[in-house]
Amino acid sequence: MGVRTAVSVVMAVIVGGTLVGCSEDSAPVHRPAGSSSQTAGSGDDQGDHSDVERAAAVQVCRQVITSAGVMVRDYNTFMKRLNDTQSYAQIGSEDEWAVETLQTGADVVRESISPSVPQDLVDTVSEFVDSSEKLAERIEQKQRTALNRSSQEWGDRRTAALDDCSAFLPTE
What segment(s) does the record annotate as region Disordered (predicted)? Predict the structure, then answer.
């Protein structure tokens, strides 16, 4: 693991710890109407989850938020450099940083999923993790033509995970 990735992981853990320390367990939880995590006809609503499930979901979501932020930063840095140079040979180690950050972020998020996390959130977060790994593979294999499609999928999956997470995070 590179120094930059190690620092990014440490920062993600610190930010995650800060989020945990700043929240109240009794804070109200609100699911927006029409949230993407609701399954048609399932009646699955935030109120249907136990306190244990909600707590597990909050932990996963905090990790999704912190990891996604670091992943986006390093991916954007890589893409800016690649767009500027139009050549992997001229981007230095930006591709390696992006790959390491995407892989590490995916690993950290995956490790945060416990059996208590509601299945609908596990599914959405797992799709985000899988798309992160897929994007890392495309970058690592220098597949420039596949980057746009993989990046779009990653962005869509990241947005879906963050949207579903919003239902579990305190609103105040």
Answer: 26-50
Sign of CA dihedral 40, 135, 133, 138: positive
Q: How far apart are CA 24 and CA 89, in angstroms?
A: 49
Site of tokens 């109120």:
47
The DSSP code for 34 is T
pTM for this model (two decimals): 0.74
Residues 6+ apart with CB under 8 A from 132: 71, 102, 103, 105, 106, 109, 154, 157, 158
Element (H, E) at 26: none
The pLDDT assigned to 2 comes to 52
Alpha-helical runs (H) found in the chain: 3-22, 51-85, 94-112, 119-140, 144-166
The 10s digit of each residue's pLDDT in 44-93 is 445 678 999 999 999 999 999 999 999 999 999 999 999 999 999 999 99
Give the whole-angstrom CA distance, residue 108 versus residue 66: 10
Q: How many CA atoms lie within 13 A of 134 on its CB side?
A: 18
* Packed helices 51-85 and 3-22: angle between N→C axes, nearest 10 degrees: 150
